[in-house]
Amino acid sequence: APLLVRRGQPAYYAGLFSTAELDGALRGGAVHFGTHLDVTSYAQGVRETHNPAGPALPAVVWDFYRNGCSLRLLCPQAFSDTVWHFLSVLQEQFGSMLGANTYLTPPGAQGFAPHYDDIEAFVLQLEGKKRWRVYGPRRDAEVLPQFSSANLAQAELGEPVLETVLEAGDLLYFPRGFIHQADCLPDAHSLHITVSSYQRNSWGDLLEKLLPAALQMALEEDVEYRRGLPMDYLGYMGVANSDTVDARRTAFMEKVQNLIKKLVDYAPIDAAVDQRAKSFLHDCLPPVLTQSEKAQSVYGFPARWQDGGPHNVDILITKDTEIRLLRHGIIRLCNEEAGVMLYYTTENSRVYHKEEPKFFELDPEYTESIEFLLSSYPNHVSVDNLPCETLEEKISLATLLFEKGILTTKKPLVQM
């Protein structure tokens, strides 16, 4: 059900994002219509998008706003370190992709038609105020939907289950499938950020990965799945025969049910979860580093040009160097047909899926060392304690992980 939190503190979200930051992003020249910014309106039941081509220049954007259009910034974490940090922390808590959009709406305007989304939505009111109307799912099929709806007409909505005016500092939550619409009152603009989670993160989405893999394994290992169908089954099966009383139909149905039940025995559940985790790591924002984490990782390594040549380039890790993962959730081991792959988030972009998934093939003999680093977190361990066969392999693995930004050291490798 929807949840409304009244703060009574207009400055509660101060510093998260502001209209001034949106203006600064526009002036930076990196915002483009359609890619980063949508210009929208909703009037007399008609929802329109007014995006021109090219960069979103301030003069053009603010003219749209002055003429009653709403502005949706699609990827605020790409332009705001604060939003990036906020989402980076939350994605670890939710264990699923965290996204965000900001919405700036002029007084007396509405930017979007009523609709429902495929995400759990948290609306944080940053500036001004906005009237919200939230409606329950219209039918069972729309409870926790897998996909968002098209624009809906007012006549389809019924009565709202919640109607409220959000003011700065307030929070509104509504689950997937709850229809919503929001408009500004005549006396105030509105800036809010919608934080989204749990997109395509249901049991059904897991089973979409799991069941095909289970069937493939059953076909390989169990001759019952490879036996031929009865020669005459087309004559008594099918919708046209669904009301027919026939012992052959009963036997056929029981056979199918038994084969489906046996699939559980072949279901590679852990492998399917690893594939979900692999997708999640592609979705993730890169971790936001503290100053100490930077100093003790490759991101603060003091390589530089000096006196006509590069200095402090060599990463000198020894058996006594104490190391740990930068964060516990930034890596995932996956056993795949091509070999053992290590997926990681440290080289991801702040723009959703701008980069391809980051991974490298890992020698199977290093798997135990990765598991050791995961189980040791957040404690530091010496390189010599990694369960590799030789010291050379221990140092080689630690150096590789350090170069990818996956490891930090207890002390900076180079003292400045």
Notes on the structure:
The longest helix is centred in the middle third of the chain and has 19 residues, at 203-221. The strands form four sheets. Strands 1, 2, 3, 4, 5, 6, 7, 8, 9 and 10 form a ten-stranded antiparallel β-sheet that branches. α4 (203-221) packs across α7. 27% of the residues lie in helices and 23% in strands. By secondary structure, the chain is α+β, with helices and mostly antiparallel strands. It has three domains: 3-197, Jelly Rolls; 203-267, Orthogonal Bundle (Arc Repressor Mutant, subunit A), CATH 1.10.10.1500; 277-409, Outer Surface Protein A, domain 3 (Alpha-Beta Complex), CATH 3.90.930. It is an enzyme of class 1 (oxidoreductase). Residues 69-214 form the JmjC domain.
Please state the average pLDDT score. 96
Number of domain modules: 3
Structural class, judged by helices and strands? alpha+beta
Count of discrete alpha- or pi-helical segments spanning 4 or more residues = 10
Q: Distance between termini?
A: 55 Å
Q: Which of globular, elongated, flat, extended, rod-shaped describes the shape?
A: flat
CATH superfamily (homologous) name of the largest domain: Cupin
